[in-house]
# Entry
Amino acid sequence: MRTAAALALLCAACNPHASARAVEEPRRAEHDRELEALLASLEAEPGELGRDDVPIEDPSGRALASFHEALAQAEAGERAARVVVYGGSHAASDLYTGRMREVLQARFGDAGHGFVPLVPMVHRQWAWGVRIDEAEGFEPLQVSLKRREPYRYGLAGAAFLAEEPGAFAAIESDHWGNGRWASRLELLYDRAPGGGALEVWLDGRRVDTLSTDAPSPQNGLQSYEVSDAPHRLEVRAAGDGPVTVYGVTMERERPGVVLHNLGLVGGKARHHLLWDEAQWAAYFERLAPDLVVLSYGNNEATDAHLGLADHEAHLRAVLARVRREAPRASCLLVGPTDRPEARPDGALEPREVVAELTAMQRQVALDAGCGFFDTLAFQGGLGASADWLAHDPPYLRDDLLHLTRDGYRRWGEALVRALLMDYRPPA
# Structure
């Protein structure tokens, strides 16, 4: 896809109201110039990286073969290339993953946003180009919030339960940003004995009433074909029994890239092992991923009750699950960011465990035939957080864990450049 056409697609979903356009135009113009420059840099000869970048480590030379094949087919207009990202709050914020989605779609075509949770897991949770409404009456059941028993957590590790009438939840294209378009919406929900009715509203009109009652626990999935445009989907509990929802996938019937962000605030690799595997696998298989990214380690860095061998065993077990359900997909492990501790005098002290987790993940990736992105090396090595915090504008937040919007954007762009380093367009 040519750069001009790609940028037109990115702007097509902007707020049509003149006043909103007037507010957004200066920022949007700057954004588009930056994106065009980045796209131009991606057209450089394969093998070239920016001075601050690190390549994906892949001794086999084949870790990304399936993904690159899918990208070539997307570029040829044949199908969508599908990316799935699991991780902790770095991913869940949809900032570096959102930048990856935006750049890949500008380069290869926009095949849709992917998965969005129906209920915010943190206050004012945001997805790139999608607004998650502040739901009412739904209780988040999330494995990372000290829930240690196996449960039907769906696709992304969080279920949302409503037991009283009047509960509602909704997602919609965010017209104040790059509002996302979709031509197919799929609602993921649970079915179980005694389940109540779930009303589905699209763009302000009730279109369905789903029974969530079933003789035994079953996956619920309902697809809605819609016009290729921004949309709002809302669910309401009828109150005649408990209902559990998970989220919505938003895709477009066109070639390009779709990136499903399945990040979980507080998420760790071991949390996967508490999801009902059969339920997760049935949903995961439908995504048909060409690339699966696992981005963990920052939350493990403070798991004092577990050792490095425990974290390694958990990560290998999660990779085994992924391999069973997506044996042809490429896989990538993204190492943890630098996470220093602040001493009483205010100086930052590196956590050696971050380097240990990085080395462990590199070996796991090598053994599994996956690629590995050394985030610590990209940042400048152990202790580089001091420079990231002092940068103008800062790349690191004051909590010394999460990055700023600029920091996440830089990380996402570096990941895209690394993913495309050895990509060859179709002849």
Q: What stands out?
A: The radius of gyration is 21 Å.
